[in-house]
Design brief:
nine-stranded mixed β-sheet; 341 residues; alpha/beta
């Protein structure tokens, strides 16, 4: 296992004051939806107009300067995404924004498992690289293992606002297409948070996700955290430091953003959420909490929670069979016209 010798938070807690400031910014952004678009500009550009053609799609590599670059290390400030669209753009019915799951530092997995099958249904994809991952990874960081708790939470917070701004960009650039958000595990959480602070119609389809980053502490991944470093820095014993970190993670939950967002600006929302019955990374009750919060923003009959057999990893591998239909259904439910199925 290449990850065996690496752990999350080997530098300790980091600057939690920065995390608090970022959370306040996101809540304020939600409260003032539609009034502060110019305050956090996100302007995608093509460095060399990188476009490649697949069998039935065009793939573009697109960049942007993060609207919250001042929260990030230099290596993470330049954002990027792949845009996957059908060759025949007349078939384009919608575009879904994909955010990354824990450890997914490439575009390839999401493109092959989700984006390419979705093209058959007239749905294009914007596959986003999140801060501290892939091309946006700081030099000292190994793989996806955030050096500090603050790095981890800042990366998620910046992702949330970037998702919101990318939703607006897709609407402006492709006005005839519906817009959706999706992601697996951590990606489902960040995509849902981004949807929660964005006005207008949206199709949401989080998969194997919870309402906060706390599953990193309470689920099967807790063994990959450097508890010794966090304990020595805080002076807390093993159980005490775990409780403290859990509390920190729970403060950054989707409820605070849903509650802050003005009801009159929500628009038509749909939600098709997938949970796995034997998931020990994101436990069942965590997924149910996320559904409770997000479904409260949807009209009656426009949300559903579906449980599939299997665990976290086995369900991820079977994405094409469970998650693709969920994304397609979420677009159907917002009722902006038929999809080819």
């Amino acid at each position: 296992m290449p990850f065996k010798k690496y752990k999350f938070f080997s530098d300790g807690f980091g600057d939690l004051g920065k995390v608090k400031d970022l959370k306040s910014l996101l809540v304020s952004f939600a409260e003032n939806s539609g009034k502060n678009d110019s305050e956090y500009p996100l302007r995608p550009f093509w460095k060399e107009r990188e476009i490649s053609k697949g069998k039935n799609f065009t793939l573009s590599k697109v960049y942007y300067i993060s609207p919250l670059a001042h929260f990030l290390p230099e290596e993470s400030q330049l954002g990027c995404f792949q845009l996957i669209l059908p060759l025949d753009t007349s078939r384009l019915r919608g575009i879904v924004i994909h955010t990354a799951s824990t450890g997914d530092s490439t575009f390839k997995i999401r493109r092959q498992l989700l984006a390419e099958p979705l093209l058959e249904h007239g749905i294009g994809s914007l596959i986003k690289m999140i801060p501290f991952y892939g091309e946006r990874r700081p030099k000292r960081q190994k793989w996806h293992f955030s050096l500090s708790v603050s790095d981890f939470l800042v990366g998620l917070g910046v992702t949330v606002l970037e998702v919101s701004k990318l939703i607006s960009w897709v609407r402006e650039t492709y006005p005839h297409a519906s817009v959706g958000t999706t992601g697996i595990s951590l990606g489902g959480g960040t995509s849902s948070f981004g949807a929660a602070i964005t006005e207008g119609d949206l199709a949401m389809s989080p998969c194997l996700s919870g309402p906060s980053p706390s599953p990193l502490v309470s689920g099967a991944l807790h063994k990959q955290i450097d508890w010794a470093k966090l304990g020595s820095e805080s002076g807390l014993k093993d159980r005490e430091v775990k409780v403290e970190l859990y509390k920190i993670m729970e403060k950054y939950n989707v409820k605070s953003l849903v509650d802050a967002f003005p009801n009159e600006r929500i628009g038509r929302r749909s939600l098709v959420q997938i949970n796995a019955r034997d998931d020990y990374v994101v436990e069942k009750k965590s997924g149910e909490k996320l559904f409770h919060e997000l479904s409260s923003t949807c009209l009656p009959g426009k949300s559903s929670l579906k449980e599939i057999g299997g665990g976290h990893l086995s369900s991820f591998v079977a994405s094409q069979y469970f998650f693709v239909p969920a994304i397609v259904e979420s677009f159907k439910l917002i009722g902006k016209g038929p999809l080819d199925c």
